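User: Okay, second chain of the day. Same drill as before: sequence in, structure tokens out.
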Amino acid sequence: MSAPKSTRVYLHPIGLAASPQAEDGASIRLAGSMAYASRFALVVRDSGRVTQRLLFGARGFDAALTSLDASLADEARLQWANLQKLHAPLQLGDRTIRLDQPQVMGVLNVTPDSFSDGGEFLEKPEAGQRHAAQMLEAGAAIIDIGGESTRPGGAATWEGDEIERVIPAVEYCAEMGAAISVDTRRAGVLEAALAKGAHMANDVSALRYDPRSLTLVTNAGCPVVLMHAPGTGDDLHQGGEYGDVVSEVFDFLKAQRARAIAAGVAEERIVLDPGIGFGKSLADNLALINALPLFHALGSPLLLGVSRKRMVGALSSEEPAHQRLGGSIALAMRGMDAGVHLLRVHDVPETVQARNVWRGMRDAALTDFGQLPA
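Assistant: Same drill. Structure tokens below.
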């Protein structure tokens, strides 16, 4: 007997380990990252309400399946396989972006009203070029160029204006040989950027805002980031009311991923982003951060964008955006612990340093964990 369509299953990794040795091998590597999980919660929801929650260890998955009917068991098996899926590198032009450790994506805003950069890199292209070069030198794997502010309350941008802002930045980043992502929800902007040397689409609307975007990404064959945002029109933050934000964002990303694949986007070119700060309260954002390992069950690499966001100020002393480095690093580290593959940040040197120290600790845990003598 099959479960009703309103019944859904979710596999939450809830116990993380520094290495397989710490659990005598009773753990799984999350999505080809340097994060490991040893304890899990199998959660069944019916119409949003939790009807079952079963805890099990890494060797107890098959036994946990016996509590599910056939259709839910099949979905659970798929999620279990996705949690352990090895993701191929992203090929962005001549650059190969490996996903077996966290990679840093540096933000280059060329807008007049950015919440963080205040229009500096739009008004002074030489400053933007210098900043992009500094991010690359500091270890950014990708430069993410945005020509529209998507902060809460921000006005929508005309496509022509966005193109005029973005293209010069794409051109000077392309001259540096950078791997270039374009943060846009407009097909015309993406098309112009790809023609000038951009490699990747970062769409905060998950290819829903512009009806041309899905076809363009499919035909271009470029990697694409699909992000969760509740709004469907100009205001992406509108409609952010959730019964359970974690499962609802999971379901949204699952549906948009399936939509893209059905349209012809190659599965290995899709990256998913839970959309921290987009139409979400502080409590919503914290719930998503704490549940990040779950999203590996969707089967795509994960991007986390938390740098300088409002939640950092809300959790400390309401510091302005340029004074949120400490909180941004703390959230980036949480993402690393959860196996996130790409970190979208403003402060590249500091985040790369934090990543390198984190990587050193992980390497040590893989080789130096104390064992009882044989």
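The first helix runs from residue 61 to 65.

User: Thanks, on to the next one.
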